[in-house]
Design a protein that fits this description.
Length: 223
């Protein structure tokens, strides 16, 4: 038997220190328990936003599938190469809109990899650390989003009086849009007010003002 035959045989039969059947079951059980923990954390974190139950269930399944793949790869080099070829065909085209969904997605995959490697203590510690960091930063106070004030007036020269009233209640105000035709004036103003009801009430008393509305602004906050 030549050197090339020995090298070929050792490559085909090469394995890492494979887990026993009991260790593999323990890895899958650990991944399942931590994935269920991620399931409840995701449900708690998205209670104020849009909750996608199917996505949350997929986090649990993803952790188990990843663990099974890692366990299979450890058994043989040939299986690992076949697994790489099979996974290279998969194309994920579903867009992840929420950044936190992406965090939970990588968290679930990471738990599957770590548990598949048999490092259960690291998986538990990382999960607890991520939970503490996410919850702490979620309760960290942030700047209050500004309000959007919309004013419709039949007085084309009424902008000065409207802005004087707005500035009396808001330390920060900015005209975002100004539309005017032959008979009407429409203004969209960004304001930061504590007494929004009083501000709207006083503006509505201005001569020529036909309609006043104040709505909250969704999206990123400008510091």
């Amino acid at each position: 038997m030549g050197f090339s035959d020995i090298l070929k045989k050792s490559f085909v039969q090469a394995t890492t220190e494979s887990m026993s059947r009991g260790d593999a079951i323990a890895a899958l059980m650990a991944a399942c328990l931590i994935a269920v923990y991620i399931f409840f954390i995701y449900r708690m974190m998205t209670r104020k936003a849009f909750y996608n139950k199917n996505f949350n269930i997929s986090l649990v399944a993803l952790a188990l599938i990843t663990t099974a793949i890692i366990l299979s790869i450890q058994s043989s080099v040939v299986i690992s190469l076949g697994m790489v070829g099979a996974l290279s065909i998969v194309r994920f085209r579903t867009a992840v809109k929420e950044p936190m969904d992406l965090v939970f997605l990588f968290w679930s995959i990471s738990i599957g990899i770590i548990c598949g490697a048999g490092l259960f203590e690291i998986a538990i510690f990382v999960s607890l650390l991520i939970t503490a960091a996410v919850l702490a930063l979620d309760h960290f106070p942030s700047t209050k989003a500004p309000m959007i004030l919309v004013v419709d007036s039949s007085d084309l020269d009424g902008e000065k009086q409207i802005m004087e009233t707005v500035e009396k209640y808001s330390a920060h105000s900015k005209v975002k849009a100004r539309n005017m035709d032959a008979e009407n004036l429409n203004m969209v103003i960004e304001v930061r007010v504590k007494e929004g009801a009083e501000c709207v009430r006083e503006i509505s008393r201005i001569s020529g003002v036909k309609n006043v509305s104040m709505v909250s602004q969704e999206g990123e906050v400008t510091f």
